Amino acid sequence: MKLTVFGATGGIGQEIVRQALVAGHEVTAVVRDPARLTVTGTNLEVFRADLTVPEAVRPAVAGRDAVLSGLGARSRKDAGVATRLTRTVLRAMEMEEVRRLLVVTAGPVGPESEGDGMLDRAARSLISALLKDVYDDLREMEAELARSATDWTVVRPPRLQDKPLTGTYRTVVGGFPRRGRFIGRADVAHAMLTMVGDPGTVKQGVGVAY
Question: Which domains does the chain possess?
């Protein structure tokens, strides 16, 4: 497949690029600073673009089978960036009539697992309060996706870890894994690539966790 990855220099984004190349896909990595992308490969195109201008992004998505995005705020002071930059991606995709889009948000943005106990619920409430601005941004980003013409999937992980790829994790379409507290960035990337061709995840939020 021909894939475009936004946020390709982030923890999840670089893993998406790396795993996609290993799987034999053609990958376009959209970056602001090419020096921060450590992944290399013969099927990799590095595309430097201003992510505030849809017209500048159009060539990066033209003719692609799917677009995957790891765009998001790295801290509270960056709240709002996920929605703003995703709007650019959506406009560019709509101009080029590219439909498949997968993005990362966060577990607390979606529904709680019905099997969670009091401790898990309390921890979720605390984290949601501490990162309210960031999660509000992600909710608005999800709302933008829902209003778009794309075949979107929202992937919602819990606390992220830097761990090697395992390929073993739980996913719940429209919900969240019971007591799902952690997942490695590499496994989030693996889940996203797996979902690209899964019609059951289209226009759905998918919780993913160990």
Answer: 2-209 (3.40.50.720)
